[in-house]
Amino acid sequence: MRFSALSPLWLKNLSSLSVDISLLPQVENTPHVARYTPQFWHFRALPVTFGNHLATGRGIFSQPMHLPLLKDSLVVSTRDMKTWLLFICLAILLPACDSGPSTAVSEIIPKTIGFGLAASPITLDPRFATDAVSSRINRLLYDRLVDFDESFHPIPALAEWQRVTPLHYRFFLKEERRPFHNGAPLTARDVKATYDSILDENTASAHRAMLTVIERIIVMDRDTIDFHLRTSDPLFPGRLALGILPADSIARGHPFNREPIGSGPMAFLDWPHEGKLRLRRLSDGVIIAFVRVPEATVRVLKLLRGEIDLIQNDLLPELVSWLSAREDIVVRTGRGINFSYIGFHLEDAVVGDLRLRKAVAHALDREAIIRYVWGGTARVANAVLIPDHWAGHPSLPSIPFDPVRARALLAQMGYTENHRPTLVYKTSSNPFRVRLATIIQAQLQRVGIDVDLRSHDWGTFYGDIKAGRFQMYSLAWVSIKMPDIFRYAFHSTSFPPAGANRGRFAEPLADRLIDEAQATSSLTGQAKLYRELQEYVLARLPYVPLWYEDNILVMGSDITGYTLTPDGNYDGLINVRRLSSPTF
């Protein structure tokens, strides 16, 4: 008998499922967490073990699975528990349902490499791409004038440049460059058409705001183009990292969002449905298939069965830990630059008090969370920019975990055990983010801060944050390369909708340091001012910094050539290859 692993028929087998865990009424040494028993499962530090000889597409599924532990206990949200039950059931039942040769249509074929995604790209038009997946895939489809080195200095990509005056930059297209995928040559005319289109208010590009410094663009010849600026902008070359589109196609109103035409290392093949996008690699004809699998556990099972070949990020740490023990799977980690933080609405009477924000900062044991929940795949952060960034602050002191100091600050504010502050803490409904928020909630409760935790679907949550409907929230800045993030996030002129200063941080000294840094022509001078700014921001705590998340790559042992990058892009697909053909 054959049936789908996702069919309700497999539910009848759940009676034989046994899991070696002890359910407790509350977590030891965490008295306040017991209040949330209806929403969270509490476990002793026992391994969850299942499966002895479970056959999969990539070998034998025999290692025990261990959930990550925080000290001697674990708090797992109901959403997480459902995820784990799904993974356990699928792991047991998928092989059992394969009693003969598979007749199912695979997601990949020979000469195809499958890449698992948690979400599909929103658009393949670089003028409108703001989500991470779209931006990363567009890097494969389109070439850009400028890229960044490992310290996030701008470097030539399609073009070299010369600063003629502080208000005049000249770019020279490299002689060796690919034509567009429709056969048309890429020239300075296409560069002008691309940026003119972004600057056109009718286009409604989300990238227009960072390019309004451009006064006019002049094509000097086929390979040379001049940008004239309204005001001096030493960071200007780094703003030209968007993909170049063919001018004639722009003029015709071509639908780049669904039928991209670029000059990148990969060409668009098809996008037959929302869950599958295929590109063709120009160097060898290999097809790269992006396969959307929203549920992380199902994504891993597809990897084990050989239906996809690689997964990057968006995996629970315990899944990564378990996969690391398998001989048929390769797991690699690399330092990332995504900055996670807790934000506050500073016009709120409670969190607007610096003492309260300092109490929150001292109450959080970030090292323990990184070790026991992240499994070591993150590092403590003290600022938006990583220390290795050219404008980063490598010697910025870390906020110590000091619950005694946190309680003392609350006492200064007049709070007692019988009169505790209650903070409304918003987060997304992503199960792992809810888990992190729950642990933060428990740590704050231990020092005397009660937390009303509210999780929402991404659209509702992000809409609330952008609209200022929050008291406290957690989010992350993704792939930040330019230090003008400080103006966007912390300058008093950047309150929404003009920027992303959503907490309404307004400090004259911060404004002055940002303005002076952006007016300074030398990068050395800018770096000095930005480091002073980062010290001040850490002292005033509009954000409580949490951590930088590592990038995680999981792939079959027959896959090689993929290199992780700090910003988490997918450029490794340019060189990835299969050592042997799929066995199906």
TrEMBL record:
Residues 154-484 form the Solute-binding protein family domain. The keyword ATP-binding does not apply. The keyword Ribonucleoprotein does not apply. Pfam families: SBP_bac_5. One of its GO terms (biological process) is peptide transport. GO terms for molecular function: peptide transmembrane transporter activity. InterPro entries: Peptide/Ni-bd, SBP_5, SBP_5_dom. Keywords: Signal, Transport. One of its GO terms (cellular component) is outer membrane-bounded periplasmic space. Belongs to the bacterial solute-binding protein 5 family. This is Peptide/nickel transport system substrate-binding protein. It comes from Candidatus Kentrum sp. FM.
